[in-house]
Write a structure and sequence with these properties.
With 204 residues, the chain is an all-alpha fold. The chain contains ten helices and two strands, in the order ααβααβαααααα. A two-stranded antiparallel ribbon has the order 1-2. Keywords: Cytoplasm.
Length: 204
């Protein structure tokens, strides 16, 4: 049976309770605005046709992961999936903003067991407000001594050394395949091309 939190009743009255138990009208509108902004950012993530009014299961899970609601202990990916299935319409595949807030209340109880229902919900809201999807897949080159040592061609030996010139530039096929010199009568003769010079030297 779902619990009724004081925060939910206060929000319905367009008021938010502070630490002294008093209410302050207007400040809640900013909180809701930031929360809804985050909802819309995740709702359109990866889908150019999305309107931002409904959140699918994949992006709901991403939101919970990117915002740190999933901690692997109190809240797991399985918990997130179960709550999503619980609050969505029976035949639906997405949740509205109102259903989204219901789902957060469910997770708040699990994520912050040591807090009261109201405090837990506020804490979860703060984790999400103003946030957006984390873009992954960007590889950053890491400069480390190990990598530098392995890529320093001046320290290569054997057949690997033959594949690079003195500047470290690869020789291409010449560095991988032994090319046979068949320009003279004797293959690989080191004095090839010197005959003309010798003849001219003798005629002087």
């Amino acid at each position: 049976m779902a619990k009724s939190f004081p925060l939910k009743r206060a929000m319905a009255e367009n008021k938010t309770p502070d630490s002294n138990g008093t209410s302050e009208a207007g400040s809640v509108s900013n909180e809701i605005g930031e929360l809804e902004e985050a909802f819309r950012k995740f709702a359109v993530h990866g889908d150019t046709r999305a309107t931002g009014r409904e959140l699918n299961g994949k992006n709901w899970s991403k939101l919970c992961k990117d915002c740190g609601i999933i901690d692997g202990k109190n809240v797991t990916i399985t918990d997130v999936d179960i709550v999503f299935s619980k609050v969505k319409n029976k035949s639906g595949r997405t949740i509205t903003y109102e259903q989204f807030k219901e789902a957060l209340q469910e997770l708040a109880e699990k994520r912050f067991k040591e807090k009261t229902g109201e405090e837990a919900v506020q804490q979860v809201y703060k984790m999400i407000e103003g946030k957006g999807p984390v873009v992954s897949g960007i590889t950053v080159a890491v400069d480390s001594p190990t990598v530098s040592r392995l890529t320093d061609t001046s320290k290569f030996t054997g057949s690997h050394k033959e594949r690079f010139d003195e500047s470290g530039k690869g020789k291409g096929k010449a560095g991988r395949v032994e090319i046979v010199d068949d320009s003279g009568y004797v293959s690989g003769y080191k004095h090839a091309g010197t005959y003309e010079q010798k003849v001219k030297g003798r005629s002087k």
